[in-house]
Amino acid sequence: MVSLSLLVACLPITKSTPLSQASTSSEASTSQVSEISASSSTTSAKTDTTTNIDGTYKGQDEGDSITLVVTGNTGTWTEVEADGDQEVKKVTFESENQRVFIGDDIKIYVAEENQIIIDDMDRDVSDRIVLKK
Predict the structure, then answer these.
(1) Range of lowest pLDDT (21-25, 75-79, 87-91, 126-130)
(2) If you write DSSP's letter for every residue of 2-27 in order, what string do you get?
(3) Which residues lie below 8 Å from residue 116, measured CB to CB, with a gap of 6+?
């Protein structure tokens, strides 16, 4: 028994990287590449939201007619009720956060090719307003 422990003690010690560490290192590199790709995609998506949204958009909200006129990052929101009453609100777009301020209300928007989709902050689909050019 003593000779076995002496034999083990005399064996040369070599430091090797365990396989699990090597794969973790490789996974980290792959993960970093994925993060960079995701970051690039996010930047591209944000760039898409800052495209020119100038124009006149029309739609309906609970029976009221909506007209949104946008120039740059500002505009006017005109809401005409079924009885003819009209309300006009100032609108400001914050493209970096995809937020739109309509009067005192803060909402989220997505600008697509010929339409703007406006949601409440809770993104409840039943409150969605779709305005088309």
Answers:
(1) 21-25
(2) HHHHHHHHHSPP-----HHHHHHHHH
(3) 53, 57, 68, 70, 109, 110, 130, 131
- Exposure string (b/e) for 56-65, b if CB count within 10 Å is 16 or more? ebebeeeebe
Is 91:105 a contact under the CB 8 Å cutoff?
A: no
Find, among 108, 105, 102, 98, the residue nearest to 51 by Cα: 98
Long-range contacts of residues 55-58, Cβ cutoff 8 Å, at least 24 apart: 55/133, 56/133, 57/115, 57/116, 57/131, 57/132, 57/133, 58/131, 58/132
Which residue in 130, 126, 84, 121 sits closest to 101, CA to CA? 121
As a whole number, mean pLDDT of residues 69-89 equals 96
Q: Which of 103, 126, 106, 130 has the alpha carbon at shortest distance from 118?
A: 130
* Residue 13 pLDDT class (50, 70, 90 cuts): low
The residue behind tokens 């949204």 is 53
- Which residue in 102, 61, 103, 56 sits closest to 82, CA to CA? 61
Residues whose CB is less than 8 angstroms from the CB of residue 37 and which lie 6 or more positions away in sequence, other chains included: none
